[in-house]
Amino acid sequence: MLRLPRFRYLAPRSLDEAVRLLAEHGPQAMLVAGGTDVYPKMKRRQFGPSVLVGLARVPGLGRVEGDGASGIAIGALSMLSSIATDPMLRKHYPAIPEAAEVISTPPLRNMGTLGGNLCVDTRCTYYDQTYPWRASIDFCLKKDGDTCWVAPGSPRCLAVSSSDLAPVMIALGARYELLGPEGARAIEAEDFYRDDGSAYIAKKPGELLARVRVGPAGGWRSTYAKLRRRGAFDFPVMGAAVAVRVGPNDEIENARIVVGGIASAPVFMEEASRVLAGKRPSETLIREAAALTFRPAKALDNTDLAPLYRKKMVPIFVERCLRKLLL
Ligand SMILES: Cc1cc2nc3c(=O)[nH]c(=O)nc-3n(C[C@H](O)[C@H](O)[C@H](O)COP(=O)(O)OP(=O)(O)OC[C@H]3O[C@@H](n4cnc5c(N)ncnc54)[C@H](O)[C@@H]3O)c2cc1C
Ligand code: SF4
Hints:
Blueprint: E1 8-10, H1 15-25, E2 29-32, H2 38-43, E3 51-54, E4 64-67, E5 71-75, H3 80-84, H4 87-92, H5 95-100, H6 106-109, H7 114-118, H8 131-136, H9 165-171, E6 175-180, E7 183-188, H10 189-192, E8 208-214, E9 220-227, E10 238-246, E11 252-260, E12 267-268, H11 270-276, H12 283-291, H13 307-326
Parallel strand pairs: 1-3, 2-3
Antiparallel strand pairs: 4-5, 5-8, 6-7, 6-8, 9-10, 10-11, 11-12
Helix pairs in contact: 11-12, 12-13
The protein binds flavin-adenine dinucleotide and iron/sulfur cluster.
Flavin-adenine dinucleotide binds next to strand 2, helix 2, helix 7 and strand 8.
């Protein structure tokens, strides 16, 4: 049986107190929200904080505020299960509940939070293992070692971004509100993720994610489709998030296609998104746009299912999403 190491758990009652505690304890402290990723990783010694700053008792961050007309603010502590069943989100921002409802299992969705999902660690076959397993290969670049076993010549870790909600937030043009020792700042979801399996988010030391804002939903339609081995539960090994804004004369005014689970950050499919804009939906246009997602999809052999299969599934999933939204 894997056991948790010893640690201190601090329970701040406000965001400011959480930020102060993080600053006070420095690199030995780590944030925990639902703990569905943090605790298993502590048991496997992938994370080794001596202090956990738990956000569970910070009030006011567990709600979805606003509506489709004004735009929304979702608190970082909102539970995945409440996001998955929120009728307003389902109506105006359907990709958000569609992604939330396929994360993990019901008990984990009752613990896991939006903030934890958007900041969740990257994954790799050589890293998501017990301590003795990782010791047997002399560890790897991401933790305790100096070689990347996926690409031994690589100077950086190539672990995969495996959050279901991150590509959705990029597709919807969301902004993240962060709070840290230097005060509050906002960052576009697209700029928050980095193509680096170790330093995979642009969160400065001591910062926390407080809220996610998405603009008014007028004209926007969105959806999410996830590839995984088992339909009951599994991390995404590819996930397509698509948002399109359709004008009154049926013309596609804007399109944003983002694919997760194939690189260290979600991949914004620029060419495919661009080709849709300003055109009326048709079978031919959808097939053309979907085909353009094949080349930029460069899945690696460090997670479940063969990389070429995952790459081939990208245009298929994108086409399914576009058909659902446009035809
Ligand atoms: C069996 C299993 C299956 C899973 N399946 C999926 C899946 O299909 N899809 C998927 O996306 N995930 C999956 N996960 C991962 C995880 O459960 C989810 O991503 C969940 O949403 C994490 O939320 P949490 O609140 O529990 O995060 P925690 O475990 O508390 O934290 C996760 C990370 O986020 C940081 N963090 C938490 N809150 C904040 C905040 N407000 N600001 C800044 N940093 C913060 C923590 O420091 C930590 O690094 C799975 C996990 C397990 C154990
Ligand atoms: S991609 Fe390389 S460095 Fe990163 S976790 Fe996997 S083996 Fe380790």
